[in-house]
Amino acid sequence: MAQTTNEATSFPQAGRKAPAFSAPGSNGQQVKLSDFKGKVVVLYFYPKDNTPGCTVQACGFRDAHSRLKKAGVEVLGVSPDSLKSHAGFIEKFGLPFVLLADEKQEICKKYGVWQQKTMAGRKYMGVVRTTFVIDREGKIAHVFEKVKPEGHEDEVLEWIKEHL
Question: Which of 3, 35, 70, 132 is deepest in the core (most CB within 10 A)?
């Protein structure tokens, strides 16, 4: 498992306005955070399509999608992968939510999740698995750091039900 170093990077804090973004979405549209004003957004950052942990996490959100929708929540996944990669990932696992292609890591950097990681003694830059809950006013309501993919969707839904 990769270790992370976030000396120079910090996540936007709860209570602050969520950083605005615009990125190509798997729905064929340019997706902006402002498109979701008045809705609760689960913005989750993950390292790579079709990898074990990322697949577990995405499928968890897929399986909880109807419960999340019922709670008025929109899910957006973000990774540095291309739209082509996202399309294959969505098709293979039947993902019902939009994935954003952040190939230049612009959104990842705004949210502080593009960090130095270490695996097997090798240092590299990558996405630290993190989830942000953004409230109806566009503010960060909660940050889930060091996310464990298994059961994360339930943890997020439980937090939303208790706090929003």
Answer: 132
